[in-house]
Fold this protein.
Amino acid sequence: MTQASLHNEIVSRIRDMIFEGEFVGGQRVPEKQLCEQLSVSRTPLREALKVLASEGLLILLPNRGARIAQITAENLDEIFPIMGTLESLAGEIACGRISDDEIDEIRALHFQMTAHHKRRELSKYFMANQAIHMKILEATNNKTLVATYLSLAGRIRLARFRANFSQDRWDQAVAEHEEILDALGRRDASALAQILRTHLENTCQTVKAALDKEYVSESGSVAGGNPDREKKKQLNPGEHRRSPC
Amino acid sequence: MTQASLHNEIVSRIRDMIFEGEFVGGQRVPEKQLCEQLSVSRTPLREALKVLASEGLLILLPNRGARIAQITAENLDEIFPIMGTLESLAGEIACGRISDDEIDEIRALHFQMTAHHKRRELSKYFMANQAIHMKILEATNNKTLVATYLSLAGRIRLARFRANFSQDRWDQAVAEHEEILDALGRRDASALAQILRTHLENTCQTVKAALDKEYVSESGSVAGGNPDREKKKQLNPGEHRRSPC
DNA sequence: TTCTTGATTTTTGCATGCAAAAAGTTATGA
DNA sequence: TCATAACTTTTTGCATGCAAAAATCAAGAA
């Protein structure tokens, strides 16, 4: 799967670093620093930066280097509806071609997930949850759909990962997943499409609420400030809550 | 809009070259040849190739250079449903926020398009047609949605552009556009979503049929052959029919 | 102090060079 | 004739160097 070339390796590594929250949104990322951090020269690094920028994880400003793309409420409002409609489509297609075995796998993941929910194991819940959504996507056998979805999901991954949500919302999300499993079991394409879309809409609201809260609690002001003022304390890289949404 | 840097310029130029059909799908594109053609050195060219590859217009094989991505029937089957659901979403969102003025603009484009249809002006019809779809997308004010759509559309652009279609299908497409305009005028979100999706499904069928025909008529065999046998005559770059779909 | 203006340092953009891999060519033997 | 091996050429991947742009720092004026 992974290409053996150095620049592909660099793409993966920086992507993972972003996913792990090692950078703050809006932060400048000088080439030299990354070169030293990854022990590579500038040429393959620059090639990697171009790729990450076209994935939407970085912003490249001519002559002014790379910045980590910032997740804003506007961003979430743009991306979640698209993910919702893509998952909805995936559900529809999946109903038409998913095998009993594949449904059983999803059912297993579902019960695993509900067990984590009962035990309040957020991180494990998150993993099982993501795995279910991926299984539905993969059941379409449409690689472009999966890639498009993952590209969008990657851009908001951190916000989603960090968003704490209320017990009520958590319970609701599990209830929605019951409906998802039910519709899938009946292979009811339109019901599955509907509930997946609703599920994503609700998730969007949760993540947005968490994002607003984070901004307010950390900087004392709402989002949208000047990203250049990076002296302002936000979060130390790597130091942040981890919770599922 | 366009970034002033050389590698961005190169991305645009190669993308345009691909859109103009200056390459054959599956064809190898050596760096040296492109360097000479564009009068640039390898470093910014290679950066550009990485970007185009992540846009899906090129395939990069480690140590083996770049190839023009090939448009296959499987490709179309993957991409068109996604574009359909994205346009469908765009239509829904647009209904909720489009202004009367914007609808008037679309109406003007629509009548312009139908005039071209009456006069059998394929190329002009194509332009007006595309403009209408873009207006609906832009009316969502969702840049990520537009970008995602355009990225997918770019990958199958040539096939769509080259596909000749029957008079019947052309008439049907225009009829569908009447319905689109009608639903938009009534701001009937679900009707617009429905007709846009159907419209894209039908377009997919048309383009697929044209692709099959082209493959058969040019190589005497169906698609899926070894792309390495590039000595085989397909189409000379730049020499191809232009017609709307 | 705050705001310019100019010098210095840093960073970015691009060209070039070298080594390794792949592709192409010739030679040899069955 | 075909297959294989050895050799040559081409192409790719990456490191480095230099010039231009941006950022930073410093000194002086308002």
User: Anything to note?
Assistant: Residues 5-7, 40-44, 47, 62-65 of chain A lie near DNA strand D (CB under 10 Å from a C1').
